[in-house]
Please model this.
Amino acid sequence: MADNDNDEYNDHVLEQLEAMETSLIRSRPNRMATRILPELMLNRAMTLKQQLQASRDTTISVVIEAPSRAWVEPLATAAKRLGNWKFVLTCTEPEKARYRNELPSDQAIQTLAAGGRTLGISQAPHAYLPPALVASADLYLVIKNPDDELIRAAIKLVTGRQPRSMPEGIADGLDYADICAALRLGSSAKACVERLVAAAQAKTAADPNLAEIPELEKLFGYGPAMAWAQGVVADLAAWRRGELDFSAIERTVVLASPPGMGKSTLIRSLAKTARIPLIATSMSEWFANGPGYLDSVIKQIDQTFAQAAAVAPSIVFIDECEGIPNRGNLDGDRSAAWWMPVVGHLLLKLDSAASGLSSKVIVVGATNHPEKLDPALVRPGRLSKIIHIEPPDADALNGILHQHLGPDLAGEDLRHVAMLGVGSTGADVTGWVKGARSAARQENRPLTIDDLIAQVAPPDNRSPALLRRIAIHEAAHAVVGHVLQEGSVTSVSIIPRQGQNGGHTMVELTEDAVLSREDIEKLATINLAGRCGEQVVLGSISTGAGGGEESDLAKATYFLALIHTSFGMGGHLLHRAAPQNVTQLLSFDPVLTKTVEADLQRVYASSLQIVEANRMVVEAVAEALLQFRHLSGPQFAAIFRGVSKTNRQVKGDRRHG
Model:
């Protein structure tokens, strides 16, 4: 039909089109929500010209993209009322061996070639409909989820009355069956609204893991990860209003942090706030849900993403991403032949979910070890961005404490308690509150702030000699960090944390995403400072600087090895290994080991020199830690200035004496 056929838009045709909606009221069956909703959605998605074209063109091909799987058949039924169709295909999943003779794509081509009318409907047309049918479409209609205006119109048609008031986004997160069950013939407009609200609440409460999860605005301490989550919620709202294409949403990330930082809590809160389904899984769950054979794991992966697509928009949350093997580490491994197909299949699924034109799935990974991830997993188009979650600061811990305490201690100022807990995680806070409540229950009395403090900073049963060594160790970390960049120390503590017997010092040297060799060596210098402090002040060293992957010595070694292997800063441009493979390379390369050892000795000497020059400050900070157990950044800086000033005056007096 030509664009300039304006004679077809006469008054008679316009009257027919305008009467389509009002005619529904005359017949009781036509007023049922099961018919009204899809017809309203279809009419809303089409211009008058497109409605005429779809109903009168004898050779037209129409493809409809439904908002979810549940809407496919209802929209197909509504579209069939536009006219007689020679070929109609609805697909809600990939078609495999179901068609043994003639394929749907062949039928579509034959119908089009013969001048027949074709109709294809799916929640993912580009993935599930025959490519020829999609490519040849004269009309490609994208149907959005019902918005407030459409729900209001549907309620009026069903009940005969307009609802007086209605919450914004009342149908967000609800599917076809949910809405139709709420809009009932013979009911009042108010009752329909109440049922929609109840359905939304039930939808959220259906997952027991979300019942006690707060919404995003009530969470604390997530930094850039929170900004990303809030952005997703805002973009989803814009998409529902028809103002943003779903593909524009930043919907694929990996959250990385040490254990207990609340990665899963953030994603569950995001799902609850955005009112979309959450499908949480992991590599270990894919194994646990089947016999563990290759085909069973692949089927579990397929089932996860098929489930997400069926209820989209939705979130797939893949926890423990480091459990997905890095293929770069499988060379020569006997299990490589088994793992390669699994990882390859997962990457293809991520491609489809994260970059597919019709996909409405948000994919989030979580890991405690981002350095172990396969680079192909986190490249653009898959889990394209890693967001690091840092330990909460004092302000964030204060908010987390109040969040977990609820009405308990509501009038108390908990900032000093939060200061004692700096360096802890959200999981630690959960344990503190549970422990404090348990102590109060055992004595049959209300919870007090002393109960909480006893959990955050329990009585220390370590020997005086060990406490002094720990205090010297942490004080040296702080002093060297302050000397290298004034004001970088945010807290120093000898309060033990879960699973640790030492203290902890928080130093923030730079916020730059790109580091120089000098920046990297500063990090190593600070990591070695605790050992230097023990050597200078106590005359001996302990095992406190060594141990596992998170120990001071391991970190310093790792930082310096990166200079020579990953960053091309050690006199050679050759890229020898990705950061996650550096430790393995050190184990097999004696030349590299010798080079890194030389750097460690040089950096250690530099750290030792700083500690020796500031021994009085180290000892003063250690004494303060033994007395108060925790120092804030400003408190530490005040001690540093005071001792340094006194030291300069003493030296000046000696020079002039």
User: Anything to note?
Assistant: Residues 148 and 289 are 40 Å apart (CA to CA).
